[in-house]
Every structure is written in C-alpha cells, then in structure tokens.
Amino acid sequence: MSEETAAPRTRTVTWKDPKEGVTAAKSLRGVEYLRAIIQGEVPGAPIASLMGFEPVEVQEGRAVFTVKPAEYHYNPIGTVHGGLAATLLDSAMACAVHSTLGVGEGYTTLELHVNLVRPIAHDTGRLTCTGEIIHVGGRVATAQGRLTDDAGKLYAHGTTTCMVFRAPGAGGREK
C-alpha cells in the first residue's frame, strides 16, 4: 500500500471543562491543587489530554510528568516534534513553581529555555519530565527541568523564569 492510499490515522481527544479546575486553583494551596489533579478530584489541563501526558507526582518545589511518545507527536521529518519536550518542560517547571504558592496566588511563565539533546521517537518508551525549583522570591521564581527515559538517558533539559502573583498581604519567599 502506498502512502497515498494508506488509511488515515485518527485520534479522539476528550477533556473536562477547565473552569472547575480554575475555580479549585483559587481556593487551594498550589501543592494541594496539583495533588487534586493527580488524584482525579479536579480536571487537569486540556493540553495534557491533547498531547497525551500526565502529572504523576508533586511535592513542594518539585513536579513530575510522564508521556509515552507516539506517532501523533511526529514532525514532518519522522521524529517527535521538539514542542512535546518543550511543553513537558514548561509544564513540569511551572508546576514546580505553582507547588510553592499559597491560596489565591498565581504565576505565569515569562521565559522558557529548552535544550534538545537527542531525538525522540515513538519507540523511545516512556519519558519522565521532572521540574524543580531553583529560586522563589516575592515576584520572580526560577526552575529547572530534565526529560529522561526509564534508563535515565537525557533527551532534553531547560530552565524557566516565572512571574509570581502574590495574594494581598503575602510576603515574598526565599528558597
């Protein structure tokens, strides 16, 4: 069968209304909110459903996501698009920041730096992305992340800078 006549592949993506998660995020400490997502008590981010990754562990200052690369992650040259690694790193590092926040506090990514060090394919196997805090201040937080396979082989690493939005009256934190 030639490529022109090969049957097209399909993938159906479903997700829950993110408004419930947004509401919960405003009433819980960051680490509690992220744990509620992992435990299925509140919906996670729709992008995780779209790209097939999930948060699997969180503690204050650290967040871990996993993904099994698939053909639907491919770019036109036959490897997994670098955007998968970038999205995983952004998610893990930003959630590491989020895990340190108090009730009513938020953040946004200001800068993301990603280094792709080896190609990823659909047969690479499960990848784990770990984000860890470097520094949390009153307005700015930084974190680092690593994307590795089950044998510990590095596929990508990165850093992020996030702007922190503190609750009224909350002081900065140094870590």
What do you see in this structure?
The protein has helices at residues 19-27, 30-38, 46-51, 82-98, and strands at 53-59, 62-67, 106-116, 127-136, 140-149, 154-165. The protein has 175 residues and is of the alpha+beta class. The protein has a single domain (19-165), classed as Hotdog Thioesterase (Thiol Ester Dehydrase, Chain A, Roll). It has a six-stranded antiparallel β-sheet. Strand 1 (53-59) and strand 2 form a beta hairpin. The radius of gyration is 17 Å and the shape is globular. The model has no long low-confidence stretch (mean pLDDT 94). It comes from Hyalangium rubrum. Its EC number is 3.1.2.-. One of its GO terms (molecular function) is hydrolase activity. This is PaaI family thioesterase.
List the helices and strands and how they pair.
Layout: H1 19-27, H2 30-38, H3 46-51, E1 53-59, E2 62-67, H4 82-98, E3 106-116, E4 127-136, E5 140-149, E6 154-165
Antiparallel strand pairs: 1-2, 2-4, 3-6, 4-5, 5-6
Helix pairs in contact: 1-2
InterPro entries: ACOT13, HotDog_dom_sf, PAAI_dom, Thioestr_dom
Domain Thioesterase: 78-154
Pfam families: 4HBT
Neighbour order of strands in the largest sheet: 1-2-4-5-6-3
Poorly predicted regions are none
Order of helices and strands: HHHEEHEEEE
Named at the architecture level, the CATH assignment is: Roll
What profile does the largest beta sheet have? 6 strands, antiparallel
Helical residues, percent = 10-25%
Which range does the strand content fall in? 25-35%
Q: Quick check: average pLDDT?
A: 94
Number of strands: 6
**CATH topology, anyone?**
Thiol Ester Dehydrase, Chain A
Number of helices: 4
| Cα shape | globular
Radius of gyration: 17 Å
CATH class: Alpha Beta
CATH homology-level superfamily:
Hotdog Thioesterase
